[in-house]
Amino acid sequence: MKRTAKILGIVLVLYVGLVTVFESLLGYYQPRGEENLLITLTEDDGNESQRVLSLFESQGELYLAANHWPRAWFRQVEQNPEVHIEFGGAHSAQSGDYTAVLMQGAEHDRVAEDTALPFIAKFIMGFPPREFMRLDQR
């Protein structure tokens, strides 16, 4: 019994380490691809900062998702929902000023289903709860 508990403990520590390293590297490098956008948001101290995020579309609406454990940017947008995004270049039709609206209830559930992540992605991210914001163009 002690040996089983010890092995499970080691596996748990290794898993937490894997998730920590993955999330840290992702936040540090902020990879950019075709489905990523650059968001400019206002921090609590009034300074602007930029983050690379994934843009999701569901039923013709644009959404941001907090898919990872580090989500300070999400809390900052909740406090100050007026944001600027660049997607597909500064002159893209989707680039511009938006108001981010927190999703809850049925709309949250629909977007979560429409943008479901594969099991391996959830596993490597440590199964964080997903939160969504709809982007309403100003």
Any descriptors?
single chain, 138 residues, alpha+beta, Pnp Oxidase, Chain A, 6 strands, 38% helix
Short description:
This protein is of the alpha+beta class. The protein has helices at residues 2-29, 72-79, 105-114, 119-125; strands spanning 36-42, 48-58, 61-66, 82-86, 96-102, 131-137. The chain has a single domain (2-137), classed as Electron Transport, Fmn-binding Protein, Chain A (Pnp Oxidase, Chain A, Roll), CATH 2.30.110.
Name of the CATH first level: Mainly Beta
Q: How many domain units?
A: 1
- β-sheet strand percentage: 25-35%
Helix content: 25-40%
Strand order, main sheet: write it out.
1-2-3-6-5-4
Q: CATH homologous superfamily?
A: Electron Transport, Fmn-binding Protein, Chain A
Estimated structural class = alpha+beta
Order of helical and strand elements: HEEEHEEHHE
CATH topology assignment: Pnp Oxidase, Chain A
Treating each run of at least 4 consecutive H or I residues as one helix, how many helices? Answer: 4
Intertermini distance: 61 Å
Uncertain segments: none
Overall shape: it is elongated
CATH architecture: Roll
- Mean model confidence by pLDDT: 87
How many β strands by DSSP? 6
Structure description:
The structure is a single chain. The protein has helices at 2-29, 72-79, 105-114, 119-125, and strands spanning 36-42, 48-58, 61-66, 82-86, 96-102, 131-137. 38% of the residues lie in helices and 31% in strands. It has a 6-stranded antiparallel barrel with strand order 1-2-3-6-5-4. It is of the alpha+beta class and 138 residues long. It is elongated, with a radius of gyration of 17 Å.
